[in-house]
Amino acid sequence: MMENYKLIDNVALHQYEFRIGDLIPRIEYIKTKNGEIYLTHTEVPSALEGKGVGSSLVRLALEDIERQQLRLVPLCPFVAGYVQKHPEWKRLVMEGVNIA
């Protein structure tokens, strides 16, 4: 059962996050001035692991990145793995970036 978590773009901390009770699963990012976004690290609190929280977070982050028309550089292995499993998102990946 997919929960509808609300994506928060925490600009001050440079991360996308959910607030689930006291827990804050997050994807850290670096945005450049020329329209790239590097997703560097995904962290899901262990109490939430295996519930699809990480995947929901990545999906909503990708939707937001697309809305902002940013070019994605998925440095985080979890994000890169998600894009591999859902190749329709490869359209956001910056040209010349290889997702093995």
UniProtKB/TrEMBL annotation:
Protein name: N-acetyltransferase
Gene3D superfamilies, per database record: 3.40.630.30
Stored PANTHER family: BSR4717 PROTEIN, PROTEIN NATD1
PROSITE patterns: GNAT_YJDJ
Classification via Pfam families: Acetyltransf_CG
InterPro entries the record matches: Acyl_CoA_acyltransferase, Gcn5-rel_NAT, GNAT_YJDJ
Ranges of residues in domain N-acetyltransferase: 8-94
Domain of life: Bacteria
